[in-house]
Amino acid sequence: MTDVMKAIVQTTEGDPEALEIQEVPKPQLQPGEVLVKVAASGVNRADLSQAQGNYPPPKGGSEIIGLECAGEIADTGDTDRSVGEKVGALLVGGGYAEYVAVPEGQLLPIPEGWSFAETAAVVETACTVWSNIVMEVGLKKGETILIHGGGGGIGLMATQIAKALGATVAVTAGSAGKLEVCQKYGADILINYKEQDFAEELKNKCDVILDIVGGPYLKKNMFALAEGGRMVTIGLQGGNKAEINMGVMMMKGIPLHGTTLRRRSLEVKAEIVRQTIENVWPMLEDGRVKHHIHEVLPLAQASTALKHLVDSTHTGKLVLEQ
Amino acid sequence: MTDVMKAIVQTTEGDPEALEIQEVPKPQLQPGEVLVKVAASGVNRADLSQAQGNYPPPKGGSEIIGLECAGEIADTGDTDRSVGEKVGALLVGGGYAEYVAVPEGQLLPIPEGWSFAETAAVVETACTVWSNIVMEVGLKKGETILIHGGGGGIGLMATQIAKALGATVAVTAGSAGKLEVCQKYGADILINYKEQDFAEELKNKCDVILDIVGGPYLKKNMFALAEGGRMVTIGLQGGNKAEINMGVMMMKGIPLHGTTLRRRSLEVKAEIVRQTIENVWPMLEDGRVKHHIHEVLPLAQASTALKHLVDSTHTGKLVLEQ
Ligand SMILES: NC(=O)c1ccc[n+]([C@@H]2O[C@H](COP(=O)([O-])OP(=O)(O)OC[C@H]3O[C@@H](n4cnc5c(N)ncnc54)[C@H](OP(=O)(O)O)[C@@H]3O)[C@@H](O)[C@H]2O)c1
Ligand SMILES: NC(=O)c1ccc[n+]([C@@H]2O[C@H](COP(=O)([O-])OP(=O)(O)OC[C@H]3O[C@@H](n4cnc5c(N)ncnc54)[C@H](OP(=O)(O)O)[C@@H]3O)[C@@H](O)[C@H]2O)c1
């Protein structure tokens, strides 16, 4: 094997359109890591933030964009894996490339009958959704969950997992088209946030909220939470600042959580992946949870993929293939 | 038995000095309740808020002040308890009286060798502290907890329980005298909040914060929390409003909780009491957790007791005896 590989490199800092394929050094394996030859990479909104210069990789992480992929193990490092094993992988970066180094705890099997592209389209959302709605805030059967951005990659995954868990699902989205897709994937209550006030519709009714908007929705989310409800914020698409009335938090007994999967420790990530394989992979294999790929593009068109996110014209996931 | 009893009645709404003993109807027992003849009642800061008109009792609750007491069962209602049984009791109200009706799930035994006054001085704080630092935010051995208001009734109880659990305890208080008492009860790190900035002293170090200040401390508390730390707010002595940066919450992964014991359901209260008996009562009986009674006053002097809270000249608990 040569020491170089192809990868997406940003030629102008902060410009998501300035992405092109170049030759870069192959990643060096750390103890406990395997080298994966990437066949397909999932596209996430965080990739756009990173390309815009707003979401730098954690210290020591790859500068290359890309939080998830699927492919074959090309080098097993010091692990007991096998060369040629087909895997999905949760990454802190480096997915938009020919090869990526992956801690063994972040490998997932390919679900029975799924392609690389399909697998790359669900790893990040499955791990994010499971770790947040179950591990972080304990969604239970019979509860009502409000999922903001129901038509996004996270939103469709969250809707399906929540339904599989026996919850009632309310979603927000900005168009009738996206809401229709949400309904197809199981959403029970559809709210067009451009036309309706979700807080009025769901006043005191939500046991769990999965939030991606942040500041501008905080007061409304607290209004929509039932007594004993829990919220977890994983995105700040509307901004990070808000005024909070802590009296409401106390009187209703509503804990507010916030997490970023990428910043979790190796141990926590491995546990999240373990639980995701145990709980979500069977849902993928028996069809309770489906992927929803908006479009598969060649890796060289990474800029075009990110442009879809800027315009928010997509529903579900974008995938880059090699 | 006659149908009337003595109780503290407020003669001018909103005036904590206008409290006097009057004859009022004895409480009627609901299914599952026993009648306790009160020997001693603990005084809590919420009693002051209620007397000031800021903390009305929940619907259906007694209008009489008082969240905890100790005494003897005078009427067993439909329960299997015995008349004459000595008990402590967690109340939603009604403690400043000769008799009070108590759901059976909110009765606690008198710790071995403890008096009524001593028991009445620990019921509310023990249940509040256990339910929050353990049940709500899971304080673990080896972790660091910051306890605001370390010299108060809650503060001294929280310090001792946290030490018994094997945590490192930091406290804030407003005077050297109170900090000295905190140290005597086990606090490891003493911060005079009038002279030092706790957030600078404890930057990124706190795994758990037990907060009673609210709005004005929110930003500082989030600064003091370690990654993965958890905060629970149970008092708003500084006010309820704050600006929050949700990005910090996400990046550090720090859930913010808020609770009020009085508003919890009967079932949750019973579970809190059960766990408190199981976990804290042994600590009381073997001396790991001690009461700290500032002063015992006759019930008729309820106003004087509340005056101490206004002036904040007390350390630990005030108790009213009959
Ligand atoms: N913290 C973590 O660990 C983590 C992990 C993964 C993802 N995330 C975050 O989760 C969010 C969703 O990610 P994604 O990959 O699903 O992105 P996505 O596919 O672009 O979906 C985002 C969706 O949000 C909708 N939206 C925008 N503003 C909204 C508002 N005010 N109310 C309701 N919906 C709104 C958009 O729909 P419309 O066009 O209808 O507005 C879009 O469908 C992003 O912010 C991402 O950064 C966080
Ligand atoms: N949510 C619930 O379920 C629940 C249950 C019980 C109690 N509580 C609340 O918990 C709080 C404490 O109750 P308590 O009975 O322990 O009252 P307490 O005995 O009056 O103690 C309160 C302590 O707070 C200190 N303090 C005031 N401002 C402070 C500040 N800015 N920073 C640090 N310390 C400060 C005071 O000390 P200095 O004189 O030194 O300032 C005082 O010692 C109250 O707000 C009460 O309402 C809530």
Q: What can you tell me about this protein's structure?
A:
Two copies of one chain form a homodimer. By secondary structure, chain A is α/β, with parallel strands linked by helices. Chain A folds into two domains: 4-122 and 291-321, Alpha-Beta Complex (Quinone Oxidoreductase, Chain A, domain 1), CATH 3.90.180.10; 126-258, Rossmann fold (3-Layer(aba) Sandwich), CATH 3.40.50.720. Chain A contains eleven helices and 16 strands. Chain A has helices at residues 45-51, 116-120, 123-136, 153-164, 176-184, 198-201, 218-224, 246-252, 266-279, 281-285, 302-311; strands at 4-10, 19-25, 33-43, 68-75, 86-90, 99-103, 107-109, 144-147, 168-173, 189-192, 206-211, 225-233, 241-245, 256-258, 293-298, 317-321. In chain A, strands 3, 4, 5, 6, 7, 15 and 16 form a seven-stranded mixed beta sheet that branches. A six-stranded parallel beta sheet of chain A has the order 10-9-8-11-12-14. In chain A, helix 11 links the parallel strand 15 and strand 16. In chain A, helix 3 packs across helix 4 and helix 3 packs across helix 9. The longest helix of chain A has 14 residues, at 123-136. The two termini of chain A are 18 Å apart. The model of chain A has no long low-confidence stretch (mean pLDDT 97). Chain A binds chain B through residues 136, 214-215, 218, 227, 233-234, 236, 240-251, 253-260, 263-264, and chain B through 136, 214-215, 218, 227, 233-234, 236, 240-251, 253-260, 263-264. Strand 13 (241-245) of chain A pairs antiparallel with strand 13 (241-245) of chain B, so a sheet runs across the interface.
